[in-house]
């Protein structure tokens, strides 16, 4: 469903990578690791169509990412839920409003009201629903960001360092949620520095480890 074929990317200077190939098949679970600055966030952005490859081809749901028009790109992005590194909430809106915002923007208010209680319960934030994002802990914010990412029922979940600033118990809780999503059939791609998290996942899910280093993507790396 997401396919990178000999992809290269440059922000204008030197090439960050050349000839990266990767296929995310439906229902797969991948961890993406590698040193800071290796280009993990950039690679994720290529995978959800936020950036276009400088060379090579990215196919999203069978279509070359370059061929998505403005309307199609909005539709395509609803099929991919993204948990951003910094969560990107609107701080003046209660967390519940932030979570349902994508559905409301899509004009699906009734669905937003109907789905919210179950979703809040799933991420364990029922009691925090009316709090503003700055009032939540790091772990709560990440779980809220995951709830927002899944509210449109996407087929793919992409998470960028979802456990970056949270403690181990919270990290494991978030990992459990990601594994549950994968067991429901969602395709999951998680960028992380946290090798303990990857080790913890190994006994729970059949995950593939990708390592980005020196402009190369190694697949199936052992820890
Ligand atoms: N918008 C941008 N313009 C120019 N250079 C950028 C931009 N975004 C990222 N870079 C550079 O591209 C390289 C890769 O950045 P990226 O954020 O993808 O790495 P990363 O592996 O996710 O790093 P980290 O683990 O620290 O989050 C870095 O050298 C970064 O400075």
From TrEMBL:
Keywords: ATP-binding, Cell cycle, Cell division, Nucleotide-binding. The keyword ATP-binding applies. It comes from the Bacteria. PANTHER family: CELL DIVISION ATP-BINDING PROTEIN FTSE, IMPORT ATP-BINDING PROTEIN. GO terms for cellular component: plasma membrane. One of its GO terms (molecular function) is ATP binding. Pfam families: ABC_tran. One of its GO terms (biological process) is cell division. InterPro entries: AAA+_ATPase, ABC_transporter-like_ATP-bd, ABC_transporter-like_CS, ABC_transpr_LolD-like, P-loop_NTPase. SMART domains: AAA. This is Cell division transport system ATP-binding protein. It comes from Cognatiyoonia koreensis. Residues 2-223 form the ABC transporter domain.
